Amino acid sequence: MLRIAVPNKGALSETAAQMLWEAGYTGRKDPRDLVVSDPANGVEFFYLRPRDIATYVGSGALDVGLTGRDLLLDSGSEAHEIAALGFGGSTFRFAAPAGAFSELAELEGVRIATSYPGLVGEFLARSGVSATLVKLDGAVESAVQLGVADAVADVVSTGSTLRKAGLEIFGPVILESDAVLIGTDETIPGIATLVRRLQGVVVARDWVLLDYDVPVAELEHATAAVPGFESPTVSPLHDPEWVAVRVMIKRKGMNRVMDDLYALGARAILVSAIHAARL
Ligand SMILES: Nc1ncnc2c1ncn2[C@@H]1O[C@H](COP(=O)(O)OP(=O)(O)OP(=O)(O)O)[C@@H](O)[C@H]1O
Ligand SMILES: O=P(O)(O)OC[C@H]1O[C@H](OP(=O)(O)OP(=O)(O)O)[C@H](O)[C@@H]1O
Ligand SMILES: [Mg+2]
């Protein structure tokens, strides 16, 4: 059985569970379950703290895990990224009260609060800056106001936590993070199927099916404007001057594409959701 680590709580847990469910796996029914076996799919899920997942997978105790790129790098684990999962996006940034710092070099000798000392320490070392890291468990945005640090380095998503704490981002982007599938050995039986299933879910979330009818005379323009994922399917219609076209497009921006096709003379432009995919 493939042994899979899944976040048991926190920012990634809900979407990770939803994705696995959409990929056809049996999830946990009770949020207190620690282990769930899914023999029909040949997998076993271990619900763990997101921060610990890279440690379990890196040690070989578990085969693969869903976690954040930032948590993977912070852990120093042997595990590596197998696939990006298209959710849990965040950036990792330095922040301080407005005007306190404007660039990285000014962090020399100052105190930086973070719950990701591995990630931040490695970044500072690579940049040739020597600072004192103050290791906190979370809510690091309060560290400056409470006087235990001069700056913070933390996960930023919408930026509202920083704003509420009166802090502003400065300096370079430390990391762009995403939820990722991690492992040590991609040849373990079952991993390739898991990856294909998860990628199928990512595709089904990000792409839609677009159907439209277009005059044959405009077909080249329309397919050049909307080439789709691979190549559009073109089918004859009863009226020989028209054809039907089917193409996959990104969900984001689909209304703009529909407007453009309409302007080119396409009609009966329909969008439908993709429920599952193997590409
Ligand atoms: N507000 C957010 N929006 C999007 N992703 C986030 C957000 N906060 C954290 N993440 C991502 O989620 C992961 C961290 O998850 P989480 O915050 O649940 O773990 P933690 O901070 O170690 O645990 P906890 O917050 O429960 O102490 C990281 O990969 C991070 O990039
Ligand atoms: O930019 P925002 O959308 O405001 O999100 C960023 C906040 O979310 C995370 O906190 P989390 O809820 O994980 O709490 P923690 O600090 O205790 O880990 C992160 O550590 C930031 O504090
Ligand atoms: Mg957190």
Automatic annotation (TrEMBL):
Its EC number is 2.4.2.17. InterPro entries: ATP-PRT_HisG_long (IPR020621), ATP_PRibTrfase_cat (IPR013820), ATP_PRibTrfase_CS (IPR018198), ATP_PRibTrfase_HisG (IPR001348), HisG_C (IPR013115), N-reg_PII-like_a/b (IPR011322), N-reg_PII/ATP_PRibTrfase_C (IPR015867). One of its GO terms (molecular function) is ATP phosphoribosyltransferase activity. It catalyses: 1-(5-phospho-beta-D-ribosyl)-ATP + diphosphate = 5-phospho-alpha-D-ribose 1-diphosphate + ATP. It comes from Agromyces seonyuensis. It is found in: Cytoplasm. Belongs to the ATP phosphoribosyltransferase family. Long subfamily. Gene3D superfamilies: 3.30.70.120, Periplasmic binding protein-like II. Pathway: Amino-acid biosynthesis; L-histidine biosynthesis; L-histidine from 5-phospho-alpha-D-ribose 1-diphosphate: step 1/9. This is ATP phosphoribosyltransferase. It is an enzyme of class 2 (transferase).
